[in-house]
Amino acid sequence: MVATSVRITARVLASRGLLDKRASRIILTAAVVDDVLGLIVLALPSAMANSAVNYLGIALTACPNLRVTISET
To answer: Distance of CA 72 to CAs 1, 26, 29, 30, 67, Å?
Structure first.
């Protein structure tokens, strides 16, 4: 696994016993959104370099993940 903001943030919050707090859920949601957007930012140039950008595929992958994450906050 890679060191993502979600993994690091969750580990710190768990070590302090704060995972059940509302503020922690908001922090983790922001970390998930940050990771998803970061993956999109990395995927776009890679796809452009191969001249095969599938914007629909990117949207269909990102939007449901962000919607579920935000609705659970």
So the answer is: 24, 9, 8, 12, 9
Where does the chain have alpha helices with state H? 5-15, 22-49, 55-71
* pTM (two decimals): 0.59
Per-residue tokens: 33: 């959104």
Tokens 């949601």, located at residue: 29
Domain hosting 64: range is 5-71
Q: With contact defined as beta carbons under 8 Å apart, do 9 and 25 qualify?
A: no
Report the C-alpha gap between 73 and 69 in whole angstroms.
7
Q: Please count the other Cβ atoms lying within 10 Å of the Cβ belonging to residue 9.
A: 18
Distance CA 39, CA 31 (A): 12
Go through the chain and tell me how many residues it has: 73
Is the model more confident about 20 or about 43?
A: 20
How many domains are contained in the chain? 1
